[in-house]
Each structure stands twice: as structure tokens, then as C-alpha cells.
Amino acid sequence: MKCFLNINVFLLLAFSFCSCQSSPEEELLHDYIPYFADSLPSPLRNPLTTAGVNLGKILFFDTRLSGNNQVSCASCHLPSQAFADTVALSTHGISGKPLVRNTPTLLNLAWTQQGLFWDSGAKDIESLVFAPLRHADEMGQDLSQLPQKLRALPYYPTLFKKAFQQDTITNAMIARALAQYVRTLTFADSRYDEYAQGKIQFTHLELQGLQIFQKECATCHPPPLFTDNLFHNIGLDSMFINDEESMYLGRYRITLDSSDIGKFKTPTLRRWALTFPYMHDGRFKNINEVLFHYQANMKKNPYLDPLFIRADGKVGIPLTQEEINALLAFLQTL
After folding, report:
1. Domains of the chain, CATH where assigned
2. Is 221 among the annotated ligand-binding positions?
3. What are residue 261's phi and psi, to 5 degrees?
């Protein structure tokens, strides 16, 4: 398979990268740090290393992490789509069945502090990776067999030794390596970022859009990450069905707090043009449908975020067509 062939390329890079003596590790990792940060956040139990990052990259693209050796993390998190995909509910998993949530981008997850997944079902990236690895409709891997499976391959013992200085392979190490790689999936190289650093000037229309964005959108999508990493009920539905393990109830599935019904994580707007379709279930095919929802199609419900309730009791964000055109011009810079 194509994914197997690519592993050989990653292996060659990994061995040469790990053994390089001419560049300090700090300089190698510095390439991943965007201009708005001093470092890449990582927990004390899993500090970033070049060996760990490169091992994580190899694992991310290796289909042998799945139960049938045909599905990798990159099967749904496509690099060409900002590590998201282009379908509402992916069928790329081991069972071929549609998943119940849209595949989110992995960009800039290093700065996520309030829980991951659409409903905060994982507290950090290390714990996040176990869910797709073992899910019957995603990668369907028996975690009790995975370390042995990797130990049987000629290169993984050496790579794990370089990354963790231990003569063994464990599921915890697999998760830590994947998490290290995911933390390096940063993006801050857009037209907006050039503007923010004073390198370019926006057009008049882009500046108008920026002003509208700051007034109407930035509360939930503040720069530079363009997400508050919090959870909101944005009026997608007026009723909430308790089905599929409460997947449709939002963060309530995790907290069992009724105020969290219908709340889902604010997605980043970084590279939004590549991460369609939109929302937790991929219901909106394009950005125009998203803007129409906020403008005129928001559903009033008992759990709706107060941010969207206007003084006259109506809900939504009233925008003229001219304002929408300007807002779109700004969004294109992200």
C-alpha cells in the first residue's frame, strides 16, 4: 500500500534526524514554534524531543496501527486538508461505517487546555489518541496486542529506544510519541499573520472585515488561535436526542451538567477553507451556509449561549450582505 511505502521515507528521515550531531535539538524543535509563542507547550511527563516527534510522525502515517493494517491516523486527518478531511462523517475507518462526529483539524492543538474532541471527552492529546486507536469504527486495534505488533517490526524497537531510552514498547509510549508529533502541527503562516507582524497591509475590504470580525466573532474565535477552546451551544438544534451514547447532547455527555446540553467545542478558523464541511456533524457544506446559520437560521433553545440572544429577544448575528462580503474577505486571510 501507499502508506507502507511512505513509512520507508519517514524511517530514513527519522534515523538521520535522530543521529544528527550538527544541530542542537532546541534549534530543530524551534522550527515548529509560531511567532506568537515562546515555546510549544508539553506536559512534564512527555517533553518534546526530535526523536519522539519523528517516531510520532512515523506512527501517525503507519496503517499497521489499525486492526486490519489498512487505516492510519492520516486516513482521516489528511495533511492536504489541514489534518481534517472533506466529508461530513468519515467512512474511512476499519468498519466503513459513518462516524457520528466530523473530523476536526489537528492544527495548533498544543495550546488546547480545556479538553479535546468536540465534547471535551479527552483531557490531553496523550489520552485522545487511545479513542480512535481502539474504536471499532475507526482503527479497531486491540491495544493489548499493539506493542507486540510493533516490537515484531525490525525498526520500531530502535526508534522507541531513541525516543524514550527504554528497551521496550508500551501503549503509553505510543500515545506519547503520537502526541509529540501532533503538538508540532502548528500553523501561523497566513496573510493575517503577515499583517499581524506588520509585514503587509490589509486591503480596505479586509480591514472592514477585520472590524466586523472583532465585533461579532472574536469573542469565541480570538486570535491568534482563532478559537477560545471553550464549548458553546450555538443554536444548531432546538431539540436534543439522547442517542448514540449521548453523542448528540454535546458536552453534557461528559459533564452530565444540563447547562452543557448542545455545547460543542469552538473550532479554530485557521485554514478553514480546507476543513469543510463544518460543525460537529459536518452539516454545513461551505462557509456561506455557516454564515447564514448565524445570520438567520439559529434555533432558539433553553441551552443557547446568551452571547447570541439580542436585546429584543431575537437570536443570531444580524449582518448585511455588504458586511458578509467584508467578513469573507477577512476570513480568506486566515
Report:
1. 2-183 (1.10.760.10), 191-331 (1.10.760.10)
2. yes
3. -65, 130
Question: What are the helix (H) ranges across the chain?
Answer: 2-19, 25-30, 50-60, 125-128, 130-134, 146-151, 156-164, 171-183, 191-196, 204-216, 252-255, 287-296, 321-331
> Is 220 part of any known ligand binding site?
yes
280 marked as part of a ligand binding site: no
Q: Is 3 annotated as a binding residue?
A: no
- Sequence-ordered list of residues with C-beta below 8 angstroms from that of 23, at least 6 positions apart, any chain: none
Q: Are 109 and 268 in contact (CB under 8 A)?
A: no
Which position has the grid cell 524543535?
29
* Position 88, amino acid: A
Q: Is 20 annotated as a binding residue?
A: no
Which three-class secondary structure state does DSSP give residue 68? Answer: coil
pLDDT tens, 279-308? 999 999 999 999 999 999 999 999 999 999
Residue 78 phi/psi, 5-degree rounding, is -80, 125
30 is in an annotated binding site: no
Tens digits of residue pLDDT in 218-245: 999 999 999 999 999 999 999 887 776 6
